[in-house]
Amino acid sequence: MTPSMVACIAVEAISILEKLHAKGFVHGDVKPENFLLGQPGSPDEKKLFLIDLGLASRWKETSSGQHVDYDQRPDIFRGTIRYASVHAHLGRTGSRRDDLESLAYTLIFLLRGRLPWQGYQGENKSFLVCKKKMSISPDLMCCYCAPPFKLFLETVTNMKFDEEPNYPKLISLFDELIEPQHLRPIRIDGALKAGQKRGRGSHDEDEQPRKKVRLGSPANQWISVYNAKRPMKQRYHYNVAEARLHQHIEKGNEDGLFISSVASSANLWALIMDAGTGFTSQVYELSQIFLHKVY
Q1: Which of 29, 98, 99, 274 is catalytic?
Q2: Which site in 53, 65, 127, 260 is 20 to 30 Å from 282, CA atoms measured?
Q3: How far apart are CA 78 and CA 60, in angstroms?
Q4: Is 222 left (phi over 0), alpha (psi -120 to 50) or beta?
Q5: Where are the beta strands (DSSP E) in the chain?
Q6: Region (Disordered): which ranges (predicted)?
Q7: Angle subtended at Cα 131 by Cα 7 and Cα 220, rounded to the nearest 5 degrees
Q8: pLDDT tens-digit series, residues 108-131
Q9: Could you confirm whether 99 is annotated as catalytic?
């Protein structure tokens, strides 16, 4: 698809997600197959629709109106592997940021016809795709895309769990690509109404996309081990140097937490410590050769 057509899809999709999120729900499975245009010949033939709410979940509590609590269950995955957010791969509670990250992958797919992690097969497909998503930079991911798509990807992949998206600002990223009304392949009524009602976000210097900090070092040698457990108290440590591992483990043991998951990348480690492992004690030893290089 042309950049201008994908930009129209982008702004209207953001508007649709804003309306869904305002109802307290996240879609949970944003992908190209779930976007449809109206019936040909009807007044809505150029109107974009988002379908399939089978994986939708609440991001906001019905009674209190507060954001749902954060949880992480690595044994549970919800979504479509190709377009799922990294947080979904890691079993984290879904929130508004995940719909927007999936939308970013959808837009890049529509532009390029392919995503860098397509082609993985086998039982560990989800792990390999997640590792690729975490290691690839926005510059490389969007090297053949117009700048607004890179800015959008950078913005949504750096959002916090309970952060409220700035929808008008996200829509405004694509202003330069939107053609005059008579040339637009789809209607963008929702996006235009959002802009008129709330005002477009500005590109102030102090509001530039934050430097990407989530990825850490490329996950060239990262393996995860876990057991399925009921929801439990967890403590997550990442990008931990070997010299500081024992401090985190001993502190966790003092609080009744024991190691349930471990990951390694070069000389950095990630740990998940749980209160519901059922262990009463635990012995660990740091090996200088965690895995053979060709594993």
Answers
A1: 29
A2: 127
A3: 18
A4: beta
A5: 25-26, 35-37, 48-50, 57-58, 234-241, 258-265, 268-274
A6: 193-213
A7: 130
A8: 999 999 999 999 998 889 999 999
A9: no
